[in-house]
User: Fold Nitrile hydratase subunit beta from Mycolicibacterium tusciae.
Amino acid sequence: MDGVHDLGGIAGFGAVEYDADESSFAEDWERRVFRLQIGSGPLRENLPAFRHSIERMVPAHYLSSPYFEHWLTGAATRAVEAGLTTREELEQRAGGCFPLSQPDRGVLPDDLTSRTEPRYAVGDEVRVRNWHPPGHTRAPRYVQGRRGTIARVLGVANVDDIQAHGGGLVSDPFYSVRFTSHELWGEGGGDGEVVHVDLFERYLQDANDH
Assistant:
């Protein structure tokens, strides 16, 4: 989905602050949220659905909250959607408003066929499909519609887009695709600079197809 979470290639957010001595958990509640997600079987079983529950956060909430609050919001949203608790119960325990993510608008694709034989080989020129699904996808917005080169054939994996929306485990070949920075950002790119992105085959088409 095109959402506030998909920030790759977007300028204006400033430098990434990094502290080599920073603790993994800034506060104790973050540690508890981590344990909740890792230890809760029904929520842990579908990682793509969990990722999408975070992607569905209200944009202002997403941008103004720390990393593990994203985890908390996603886990709570999934728990409510699974019928394990209710918003009212969460707000009673929290003593006030407990924000949840927006409803899931994702739909399954028509083609749910598993594929195991790669269509492309190293060196093939491809173009990423330029489409904007309302649900979860692992194709960043900044590579959609862009032309790249197959750098590696990585094997076969389950398609997150399908698993996230209840379609089960559907496999697809996936690749490391190399893009020049000029292809992605025009004059803003640098000579000799490239970006590698791992992409499922169903995201790709022949380079000359539009």
About this structure: The chain has two domains: 1-103, 124-206.
